[in-house]
Amino acid sequence: MSQLITEPNISGADDFYAELLSLHEGRSKEDSDALNARLILILANHIGDRETLREAFELASAAGQQEQQS
Amino acid sequence: MVAVRYQTAFQLYPYERSTDQDASEPVRHSVVVVGGGPIGMAAALDLGLKGVPVLVLDDHDGVGQGSRAICFAKRALEIADRLGFGDPAVEKGVVWNEGKVFYDDRQVFGFNLLPEEGHKRPAFINLQQPYFEKFIVDRIRQAQADGVPIDIRGCNAVTSVTPNDDHVALSVDTPEGSYQLEADWLIACDGASSPIRNMLGLDFVGRVFEDNFLIADVKMQAEFPTERWFWFDPPFNRNQSALLHKQPDNIWRIDLQLGWDIDKREEQKPDNVVPRLKAMLGDDVEFELEWVSIYTFQCRRMEKFRHGRVIFSGDSAHQVSPFGARGANSGLQDTDNLCWKLKLVLDGRAPERLLDTYDIERVHGADENILNSTRSTDFITPKSETSRLFRNAVLDLSEVSAFARPLVNSGRLSVPCVYDGSPLNGSDDTTLPKATRPGAPATDAPLTSGDWLLDRLGNTFQLLAIGADVPECLEIDGIEVENVPVEPNDTIRERYLGSAPSAIYLMRPDQHVAARWQSFNREAVAAALKIATGNA
Ligand SMILES: Cc1cc2nc3c(=O)[nH]c(=O)nc-3n(C[C@H](O)[C@H](O)[C@H](O)COP(=O)(O)OP(=O)(O)OC[C@H]3O[C@@H](n4cnc5c(N)ncnc54)[C@H](O)[C@@H]3O)c2cc1C
Q: B403–A45: do the CB atoms touch at under 8 Å?
């Protein structure tokens, strides 16, 4: 059974997206990369469930794959 | 002539001529152990105490100088207790539980391993390897005085090995020339560069880590606490790691990562080592160099540890990076596993295929160790941009948030191997606690009678009877099964009973659980014993 929520789940999508990007504003590429890594770890710990995390890993890499093929 | 490859810290078995050297025909021995390192000596002691005549051949006359292993884990100490040298090791060793992790120029967190109560032995002690080895040999000397059949021959280098169906033929070089020997069984404990493995043309594959580490043991009167300090990317060793850890006799182990492209000879010179150490310890700290060397690390193992009558144990069979202290600790679990099986085979109580379960169980152990130490090494030395990015993210977070601390991997310290899925595991009652399932080593516990559970276990098959009645002594298929009745107390209940009112555990001679039930049934025990001895 799928645990990962793949239906829209964030209210105020545009606001969230703007917040995410503003987090990176004015940062160097290196700084942004480091911040992203920290963010992934924080969110992963919040999710906690290994199966859900694995589903997220799969979704993330599959989506990237499709992009490369097209 | 026997080449001297290293200096000895203690001369313990000087060369003496043996009558075997004057025999007209090669003398046959029951078991020959090649290599008198910690693993070979532990094998000899274990077999000798079981009444098996054993001959140890070592190409030096004592214990090598320079402490390699310093960290001995609880399971190794429990094995040492079973063999009778646990007390001197723990008395001499430094017990530690606390540590600090530093990143860049700051401490990111401190930890306390908070050992679980109710165990005779601590989670770890730090002790120089030469002491550990000396305590084994001291114990062998004491056993020999009691008539235990162990023979140690120093300056006896094995130069050729010829396996046959029913024995192994050996050539041995000594200061007075060479001689021939035969062995029913040969245990190769001749270290990571195992000449025997090479003589037999056997594989040793795995991963080489392109990195060098400067290992320095220094003597100082400094006020550093008895803690394990680990630095990632410190100012005094940029882009590399460092470790400081206390040993007995005011000796400290310092481990500095140097990277791949270095001149090993240059780096080992005191003129280069001392400034590095001063940068780390501070200019005002006085110290003396006890021992310095440079290591590269590998994680690899043989595909199989048993090759007919030649059996590999310790570093000859598997090698890991030292982060996690798994080398000697796992080698001791090898011979712990092997010796009782070999004894049963020698006595004709078990088929030779029982020895293949040594292979299965200890390959499983080696894989676990290789996995863990590879992961530690990858965290300490990230192999890609991305892995460095995540490593540094973990370290940055560990300073401000507890969740990231378990992700910091500066070496996962050795924990005992559970032989899950082993063909020797018998029936399990899964209502009993998971930690003491078949395949697991017994968990220690204080007994109502004032002693420790593990001091009662080992060396023969046993029925650990907790709050249950079993016959005084059982003999099944010629194998004695000793009865160890134990009164339940809170710790015993938690570790062995769970919600069950009583339990019967069939224990192997290496203190691992073979099978368990809630009550005694002779047929069930007999069936489990058949499985545990390869007779099923
Ligand atoms: C820097 C460092 C730190 C370490 N730290 C730890 C730690 O904290 N904890 C831990 O558990 N492990 C640690 N280890 C690993 C540990 O030192 C080894 O796992 C352990 O020494 C292996 O023991 P052994 O008996 O298998 O082999 P060895 O100790 O290598 O002994 C092999 C013996 O065989 C002899 N020999 C070789 N060839 C022949 C021959 N042809 N004939 C006769 N004799 C021969 C040798 O002279 C030697 O005496 C560390 C290792 C290093 C390098």
A: yes
